[in-house]
Amino acid sequence: MAYLLFKYASISAAVLVGLYAGLLGLLTTSSFQAHVVYLHKIQMTWFKDLDVPESFGFLRSQTTPFSIKSSTGGTLYAWHILPIELYRHHEPALLTEPSGFASDITSRFAFKLLRDDPDARLIIHMHGAGGTVGSGYRVPNYRALSAGQPNKIHVLTFDYRGFGRSRGTPSERGLCIDAIAVVDWATKVAGIPPSRILIFSQSLGTAVSLAISEHFALQSPPTVFAGAILVAPFVDAQTLVATYRIAGSIPIISPLARFPLLFNYLQTFIKDKWLSKDRIAGYIRANEAIGEKYRLTLIHAEDDYDVPSHHTEVVFWHAVNATVPRGITYDELEEVKYKSKKDLGAAGSVMEWRTKNGVIREEMLKTGLHDVIMGNPVITMAVMRIFEAADPSFK
Fold first, then answer.
1. Which residue among 5, 137, 312, 324 sits deepest, i.e. has the most Cβ atoms within 10 Å of its Cβ?
2. Please, where are the H alpha helices in 254-329?
3. Could you tell me the maximum CA-CA distance found in the chain, to the nearest angstrom?
4. What single string gives the DSSP state of each residue in 135-159?
5. How far apart (Å, rounded) are the C-alpha atoms in residues 36 and 319?
6. How far apart are the C-alpha atoms of 337 and 314, rounded to whole Å?
7. Model's pTM, two decimal places?
C-alpha cells in the first residue's frame, strides 16, 4: 500500500513538474507571453454590451461609447463619462440624445459640454491588465475620479489594442502608441489644454502613463499635464514577474528564484520591459531641467497581493533620486521618510518630496487591495489635490 502511494505521488509530482516546465517553455514565446502579461482576452464584463453603458450603472446618455483612431491605423474603443452634477443640470437635453455608440462623437451634446466649457477638467484613465473599460472596479473608479467636482471633471477611458473592442495585439510599443493617440484626441479634437488634463492610471496603466508622460515632456516644446496619479505602480516587468502570483496565489517563475542562473536566463525572454523606474526618472529630470511644474501622486495598499507595495517605495525612490544632483540612496531616503512622513494610523502614511518645480507624493494605505482602492475617497482627494495645485481657483 505504501509503495502504491509513493508510486502515485511520484507520478503526480512528475506530471506537475512536466506541466510547469511546459508553461515555462510557452512563456518564452512572444504570443503566449502577451496573453499572460496583458490578460487581454479575459474581459470580465459578464456578457454585458459595452455599447450599453446603462447596464453598468450609468444614466441614459451619461456615458458615450465611441472610437479613437490610432496612428497605426486601428481604432480604440473609448467611453466619455459625464460627471453626475453636470448631467443633472442638462438631463432634459441629454435624454433626447440617442444612446449607445456614437459614430461621430463631436455631434453629441455630451461632447460639446466638454469642449465648450473653459473650466472643464478631463481625466484620461489608463486601466490595468485584463478586462475592458467596464470591468470590475473600474466603474466605481470613474465615479470616484469626478466626485470632488461633479460639475466639471469628465473622464475619458479607453481599451488598449487587443482589449475589449479595440483591435490588434498588445505590446509595449503598441500600448504607448494608443495612449498617445488618446491624448492627441483630448487636446486636438476635444480641445482641452494639457494644463486641464490629469492622467490617472492603475497597475499596468501606470507603466503606460509614465512612458507617455516622459514622451510628451521630452517634446519641443514640452507638453506637461496638470498631474498624474499612479495606483499600484511596479518597478519594471522583470522585477514584477520575480514575485508575481496570478490571483495572488499561483506563482509564475518566482519558484525558480533559488536557481539564479536559470531564473536570470528565463528573464532574458521578457519581451516588454516596461521600465517604469527609468521613465519616471526621465520624466522628472526633463521637467526639472527646463523648470516645468509637475505633480505626481503614487498610491499603493499594503495588502495588495497582486503587485507588492514595495514596488511603489522603489519607484518613489527613483523619482526622488532624479531631483537630487548628487543622488540619494534608498536608505538615505528611508531615513528622511522616517522623520518626515505623516503617520495616519489605520489609514496608512503620506510622504511628500517637494522641489522648486514639482511635488512627488507617496501614499501608502493599510488596506485597499489591488482594485478596491480605486473606488475609495483617497482617489477623489488625490484628484482634487492635483487640480487645485495646478489652478487654485478650481474649488
1. 312
2. 260-267, 276-290, 310-321
3. 80
4. STTHHHHHHHHHTTSTTTEEEEEEP
5. 28
6. 13
7. 0.91
Q: Output the DSSP codes for 168-208.
A: S---HHHHHHHHHHHHHIIIIIS---GGGEEEEEETHHHHH
Helix (H) or strand (E) holding 248: none
Taking only the tens place, the pLDDT of each residue in 44-94 is 888 899 999 999 999 999 999 999 999 888 999 999 999 999 999 999 999
C-alpha cell read off for 67: 472610437
Instruction: Please state, in angstroms and rounded to a whole number, the distance separating the CA atoms of residues 127 and 201.
Output: 6
Is residue 317 helix, strand or coil? helix
**How far apart (Å, rounded) are the C-alpha atoms in residues 234 and 36?**
16
N-term to C-term CA, the chain: 76
CA nearest 154: which of 143, 163, 138, 164? 143
User: What is the three-class DSSP state of 296?
Assistant: strand
Identify whether the C-beta of residue 200 lies closer than 8 Å to the C-beta of residue 229. yes
Q: Positive or negative, the Cα torsion across 298, 301, 306, 312?
A: positive
| 3-class secondary structure, 297 | strand
Structural domains in the chain, CATH included, are: 1-38+249-271 (no CATH), 41-248+272-390 (3.40.50.1820)
> Is 383 within 8 Å of 153 (Cβ atoms)?
yes
Q: Which residues of 138-159 are buried (b: 16+ CB within 10 A; e: fewer)?
A: bbbbbbbbbbbbbbbbbbbbbb
d(CA 364, CA 241): 22
CB atoms within 10 A of CB 222: 14
Among the listed residues 37, 35, 57, the one whose alpha carbon sits nearest the alpha carbon of residue 46:
57
CA distance 395 to 387: 9
- Which tens digit of pLDDT belongs to each residue from 131-189? 999 999 999 999 999 999 999 999 999 999 999 999 999 999 999 999 999 999 999 99
Rounded to an integer, what distance in angstroms lies between the CA atom of residue 201 and that of residue 106? 26
CA–CA gap between residue 12 and residue 222 (Å, rounded): 59
Burial of 368 (0-12, 13-18, 19+ CB in 10 A): buried
Q: How far is CA 18 from each of CA 21, 25, 260, rounded to the nearest angstrom?
A: 5, 10, 20
φ/ψ of residue 254, rounded to 5:
-60, -30
Beta-bridge mates of residue 136: none
